[in-house]
Amino acid sequence: MHPEVLDKILDKLRVKAHDRLLVGNDSADDASVYKINDSLAIIMTADFFTPIVDDPYIYGQIAAANSLSDVFAMGGTPVQAINILGFHMGKVKPETVAKILQGGMDKAMEVNCVVAGGHSIQDQELLYGLAVTGIVHPDKIWRNNTIQKGDVLVLTKPIGTGVVTTKLMHGEGTKQQEEEVINSMRVINALPVSVSLENRIDVHACTDVTGFGLLGHVDEMLSGHDDLSIRLFLNDIPTFEAFKQVYEDHSAWPGGLHGNILHAKEIMTHKEDLMDPKYCVLFDPQTNGGLVMALKREDVPRLNRLLKIAGYPFEAVIIGEVVERGEQKFLVDE
After folding, report:
1. Residues ≥6 apart with Cβ < 8 Å to 44
2. b vs e for 303-334, b when ≥16 Cβ sit within 10 Å of the residue's Cβ?
3. Are 73 and 30 in contact (CB under 8 A)?
C-alpha cells in the first residue's frame, strides 16, 4: 500500500499517543518500536504474501526472510516470530503447507529467531508470512529518515526480483534466471547490520527495499527533510543478470511496478516518459530486497571488506548521495 493511500486511512483513525511508543504510525519506518526500559525496546512487524515461486519450502524461506527484514532495517535483532497462514483446505495439500512452514522455521533459525506457533485461516488464496518481535537498545534504533547532508546511499542487493519473477510466473523464464533471484531472496538482511554494529560503522539511516521499489523507499528517507534532495546514480544501481535480460519487455512488469511509477511522477525531475525501460530499476517492486543504508562515503570500503570476510554474497554499492534541496526531491544522473 503506497504511503499516500495509507495516510488517507490513518487520517481517519483516532490514534492515541503513548510515551513508550518510540516509533509508530506517525512515521513511515519499517516497524514499530516500544520501550520496555532504559536499555531495552522491542521491535514489532508483520508481513505476508502469496507464492512467487513454485517450491513450497523455498516460498516459506523467502516469506520468512522478507518478514525478518524489517527488524534488521531498524538495527534490531529478531528473537521470536509467529506464523501467519492462509490456505484453502480443499486446494492445498497438508504436506505442502508443512513444507512452507518448515521453510519459514528453518530460515528464522538461521538468525536464532524462534518460530513459536501462529494463526491460520481458511482462504481462497495461499498466503504466508511472519509476525516478528525483535529487540534493540532504545538509543540505538535505526530510523529511515535520519539521513544527513553529504551521506552516500549504499544498496546491499541487486534489483530485479519483481520483473524476473513475473516473467517466470508467465512460464517464460529460464532455470538460471530463477536460481539467481531465488538465491538473493533467500538471503536474510542480517550481515550488513551486524557487521556495521559490531565494527562501529556509523549508519545514519536505513530502510529495506520491498514493494514500493527503490525510489519509493528512498523517498521515505527524505521524510521531514525539506532542505535535502537525493541524487541517484541510475547506471550504478546493481541489477541481476536475469533482470537485464527481461526488463525491456513491458509484459514482464508487475502491477506493483506501474503503481510505483504513478507515485513517482510528482517527485522526480524528469519530464520524460517514466515507462521508458531505463527507469524500470527505480520502480521494480522487490521481495526481500536489500537494505539502503546512509553513511559517510569513507566508511563504504571498510564495510565492504568486512562483508566479504563475513561471507556476504553481494557488495554494498553506492547508488546515490544526499545533497541540498534541488528543483525536486530526486535528481537522477544517467
Report:
1. 31, 32, 33, 34, 131, 132, 133, 134
2. bbebbeeeebebbbbbbbbbeeeeeebbbbee
3. yes
For the whole prediction, is pTM greater than 0.90?
Answer: yes
The span from the CA of 97 to the CA of 81, in Å, is: 17
Query: How does pLDDT run across 141-165, given as a tens digit for each residue?
Result: 999 999 999 999 999 999 999 999 9
Q: 45: part of which helix (H) or strand (E)? A: strand 40-49
Distance of alpha carbon 317 from alpha carbon 152, whole angstroms: 10
Structural domains of the chain in order of their starting residue, each with its CATH number: 3-136 (3.30.1330.10), 152-333 (3.90.650.10)
Rounded distance between C-alpha atoms, residue 63 and residue 82, angstroms: 12
Selection from 35, 33, 31 nearest residue 68 by Cα: 31
